[in-house]
Design a protein that fits this description.
Elements: H1 15-34, H2 42-66, H3 72-80, H4 86-92
Helix pairs in contact: 1-2
Subcellular location: Nucleus
Protein name: Protein bud31
Keywords: Nucleus
């Protein structure tokens, strides 16, 4: 059962435009949540969930801001009922954060040295050229 079907309020007009894709993301999320996580670190088990949340939020963001195919009411409905990540989408509107993978990567209190996550550093500015992966969400580079 999709997120929208669990709500008591009826979705706004235009829901049928995104409902199939949201249903697909819900199915992926259920599969990611039920995957076995033995042998993985605690954060590593949550990486697929962060990635699916990012994809779903990016889809709704692009449908509203870039393609302009959904209404403001439908966009606000998705944010209100947490179908999309509102604070993350707010950051995407700011310059320099267009490709941000998750909000944990810009919170300095979650890092060991008190600065942004390694995935936020552009590849050309990294001291080491070996591939890195974010500890929080598994991102390989959103800077």
């Amino acid at each position: 059962m999709s997120l929208a079907r669990r709500r008591k309020t009826k979705p706004p007009k235009g829901w049928e435009i995104i409902s199939d894709k949201i249903e697909e993301f819900d199915q992926k999320m259920r599969e990611a949540e039920s995957q076995p996580h033995q042998g993985k670190r605690k954060n590593e088990a949550l990486w697929p969930i962060f990635q699916i949340n990012h994809q779903r939020s990016r889809y709704i963001f692009e449908m509203y801001y870039k393609k302009k195919e959904i209404s403001k009411e439908l966009f606000e409905y998705c944010v209100k009922y947490k179908i999309a990540d509102g604070p993350l989408m707010e950051k995407w509107k700011q310059p320099g954060f267009e490709r941000l993978c998750c909000l944990q990567c810009i919170q300095t209190r979650d890092t060991t040295h008190g600065n942004c996550c390694i995935c936020r550093v552009p590849k050309k500015d990294r001291k080491s050229q070996k591939p890195v992966q974010c500890f929080n969400c598994g991102c390989r580079g959103c800077g």
